[in-house]
């Protein structure tokens, strides 16, 4: 069965002049990115059949994005191309003081419409993963997201969600972001958050408080990724920390996306009812395997580079 990932497909322009701000830096590395795009690439790298629903421009960067996805064997049948809007860019640099300088040039990704979503054929799709920071910023993608959620619920498709809160991107829209996230947290079957996101979404100050609030307010299976400490699994009103494996991290970018991709890859051939009847031991095995995918991703520089080294051999 297939997995469909929806959300932003963008180009990260990473400043490679050490310590420089975006104003000072001259040299930038072009990297295809966006969280749902990463998840799709990770699933494909593991050997899963996966489609990406997103929008890019008709410019060379949109073409590059499609080529990168196809190099991973991600289906780009539902990657739409906008004739008016340029492919979305995120410019990032790590400055001397350790802060990130960030500039986001939003373009085509936010223009995916509910009509385009309506055209997507969901036959053979067992899981839809909604993973996007930008989906809840103002624009047509907001309604498109909700439309696909409704379509998925009607067709009894397993729904996965990752809010991907990015402070520099969302800081002026945080209240609306949280509000829209809750619609997905309440309706999905599985979600993954970081510890910071868990506290932000539950308006709590500690991880324990956040976990308690999530257990009360949601019915989904949930995971809270904790970096090298592994992952907290919330299942049937109980929580367990599932340790990761020890690696020498080079770059943690994309570890969370590889984690989600690996978890969904292991669920893709089950129906919603079958997933709901998995035991705690089954979930421990799934999350432990997903941790291995996250850890492997930390061993390489850049998410897409790491996914080239990902395969389902790590589950053995
Ligand atoms: P993202 O920045 O992609 O949203 P995230 O913050 O959600 O990621 P992390 O906690 O960084 O995700 O990593 C996801 C998973 O990868 C962790 O739950 C863990 O299993 C594994 N992982 C991350 N960092 C390390 C590490 N340094 N050593 C071992 N495993 C790691």
TrEMBL record:
Keywords: Kinase, Transferase
Pfam families documented for this protein: PfkB
InterPro entries: Carboh/pur_kinase_PfkB_CS, PfkB_Carbo_kinase, PfkB_dom, Ribokinase-like
Domain (Carbohydrate kinase PfkB) ranges: 2-305
Any one GO MF annotation of this record: kinase activity
Assigned protein family: Belongs to the carbohydrate kinase PfkB family.
UniProt-recorded name of the protein: Carbohydrate kinase
Organism, as annotated: Limnovirga soli
């Amino acid at each position: 069965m297939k997995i469909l990932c929806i959300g932003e497909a963008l180009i990260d322009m990473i400043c490679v002049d050490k310590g420089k701000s975006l104003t000072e830096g001259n040299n930038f590395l072009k990297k295809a990115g966006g969280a749902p795009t990463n998840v799709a690439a990770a699933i494909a790298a593991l050997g899963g059949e996966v489609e990406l629903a997103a929008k890019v421009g008709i410019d060379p960067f949109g073409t590059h994005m499609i080529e990168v996805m196809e190099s991973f064997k991600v289906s780009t049948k539902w990657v739409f191309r906008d004739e008016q809007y340029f492919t979305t860019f995120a410019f990032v640099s790590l400055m001397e003081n350790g802060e990130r300088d960030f500039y986001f040039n939003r373009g085509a990704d936010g223009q995916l419409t509910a009509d385009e979503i309506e055209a997507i054929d969901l036959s053979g799709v067992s899981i839809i993963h909604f993973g996007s920071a930008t989906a809840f910023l103002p624009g047509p993608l907001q309604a498109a997201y909700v439309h696909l959620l409704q379509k998925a619920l009607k067709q009894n498709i397993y729904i996965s969600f990752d809010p991907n809160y990015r402070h520099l991107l969302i800081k002026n829209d945080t209240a609306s972001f949280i509000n829209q996230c809750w619609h997905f947290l309440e309706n999905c079957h599985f979600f993954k958050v970081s510890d910071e996101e868990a506290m932000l979404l539950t308006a709590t100050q500690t991880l324990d408080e956040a976990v308690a609030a999530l257990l009360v307010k949601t019915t989904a299976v949930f995971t809270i990724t904790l970096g090298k400490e592994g992952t907290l699994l919330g299942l049937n009103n109980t929580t367990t920390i599932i340790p990761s494996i020890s690696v020498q991290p080079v770059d943690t970018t994309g570890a969370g996306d590889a984690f989600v991709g690996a978890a969904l890859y292991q669920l893709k051939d089950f129906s919603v009812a079958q997933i709901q009847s998995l035991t705690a031991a089954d979930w421990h095995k799934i999350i432990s395997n997903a941790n291995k995918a996250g850890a492997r991703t930390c061993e390489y520089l850049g998410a897409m580079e790491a996914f080239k080294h990902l395969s389902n051999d790590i589950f053995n």
